[in-house]
Structure formats: structure tokens, C-alpha cells
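Working notes for the structural subgroup meeting. M.R. asked for a predicted model of this chain before we commit to crystallization trials. I am recording the input and output together here so anyone reviewing the notebook later can reproduce the run.

Input as submitted:
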Amino acid sequence: MGIEEKGQSFLLNKSPQAPLGPKKRTSAEISLPLSLLFWALFPLAGVISIPFSLVGAIIQKRQEARFARRMNEAGRFMQWEMFAQKLKSGHGTAIIEHFSLEGPARIGTSPGECSDLQANGT
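Returned structure, recorded in C-alpha cell form:
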């Protein structure tokens, strides 16, 4: 083993067992039959996914209808005109929930200003 005393570097005769840093990624070629099989199954997977998305949409509509029914039973449901009038009067804050770009939006109000509610810890 040789050691260099002038600088702060030390030379060792052993090389590290594992390379430092991330492993280099290699690409693998897919055989032609496997590639053709993939391209044949890809559209089939798209066709199979359609019933699943329809079932998901039906479930979501039922959940939203159940939520609206519960809010109506609790006396927390109001017509749009009443909602707009309440906001125009300057009392309360509108709260809008979006679950996705395509999904349902829930719109509600709080009795006071949200900043007041946050300051009071409620």
C-alpha cells in the first residue's frame, strides 16, 4: 500500500467492491413475438377497462345522491338561489370541494368568515 503524505489523499491498492452512485440502467430488447403479443393485448385491455369505469361512475353517482339525501335530512341543503342570496348579503364564506376535474363538486357555506373561525381555533 502506498500513502501520499503531502496532500490529504490516500492511495490504496484495493479497489472498492461496489461502484459508488446509482447503477447504470441498461435497455433490453423485446423479441418480435412478445412485442406483437403486447400490441394485440393493449387494445383488449382498453376495451375491458370500459365496464370498470362505468361501474365506478355509477358508484360515484350513488354516493353523491346518498350524501345529498343525508344533507337534506339534516337540514343542510339549500336551493341555488338561496345560496347566491346568502353570499351576496356578505355573511358567511363559500366552501367549494372538487374531488377531480371530472367528478362532482360540493358547494357549501360556513356561517362566519373562515379567517375568524381559524383564529378562534374552531
